[in-house]
Amino acid sequence: MENKALGKGLSALIPEKLPEGIPQDEPRNGVAFLKTASISDNSLQPRTNYADDKLGELKASIKEKGVLQPILVRKKNGNYEVVAGERRLRAARALDLEEVPVIVKELSDQDALVIALVENIQREELNPIEEAEAFKRLIEEFHYTQDAVAQSVGKDRATISNLLRLLKLPMSIQKMVYDSKVSMGHARALLGLDSVIAQEKLAEAIVSKGISVRETEALVRVGGIQSGQKKIKKKEKNQDILALEADLRTVLGTKVSVLSKKNKGKLIIEYYSLDDLDRILEKIKGKKVI
């Protein structure tokens, strides 16, 4: 798979000249004008949640000043499809603008998805579940590795791995993350519970009682909200061991358990895919695993 460093910015995608045959009104600097009605939505758009208030602000700005930044589109099946700038297109439609400035670029489905993803990440407009679903799509449909995804969108591989792990949570909890009722930090902590029922009960408590991330992590260590409420008597870990686990989790970017008994014990490091295992081994060895 050819990996293009699209995460460096969208400016690299703007051509100096338009392809031949593009309808245009005296194009300047590679910008053409297309009928708003002739541009379809992005079939690969990773973003599904559009805030009405922000769209309203954009409409007000466009009504006053017009569409200042051209919309990136591509030709698909004889028509035009938006790649980057879907909010601007939606606002223009709402204002009944007849045409909008565009830049036309020949792009594959793979590149169109990455560009749309990069644009949303740069504008901080995706929630963690939308990001995770888009990364999963790159891996499953376009055969990206986690390294390639990380390079393409300008994030480190540990971040990609942690976001993908969110998709292992029950759909009910994913919906809470999507709706911003449960934070990324809470969701990562919930992954430490083996039981789906325990995860869902603790997630409900997070929403209803405003439990902090630190409190959530403490409840996960004792097995969930019920175990915490019942104060199950069990031997607590030494504070030094807990601190060591926390340090190892930070360094390795995954769940780590230290089980000690007298002068010996076990170190358990969890991984969630072969790519994740390679990443952890690289952290431990201090060099890339071949």
From TrEMBL:
Belongs to the ParB family. SMART domains: ParB (SM00470). One of its GO terms (biological process) is chromosome segregation. One of its GO terms (molecular function) is DNA binding. InterPro entries: Chromosome_partition/occlusion, HTH_ParB/Spo0J, ParB/RepB/Spo0J, ParB/Sulfiredoxin_sf, ParB_dimer_C, ParB_N. GO terms for cellular component: chromosome. Keywords: Chromosome partition, DNA-binding. SUPFAM superfamilies: KorB DNA-binding domain-like, ParB/Sulfiredoxin. This is Chromosome (Plasmid) partitioning protein ParB. Gene3D superfamilies: 1.10.10.2830, 3.90.1530.30. Residues 32-121 form the ParB-like N-terminal domain. Pfam families: HTH_ParB, ParB_C, ParB_N. The lineage of its organism: unclassified sequences, metagenomes, ecological metagenomes.
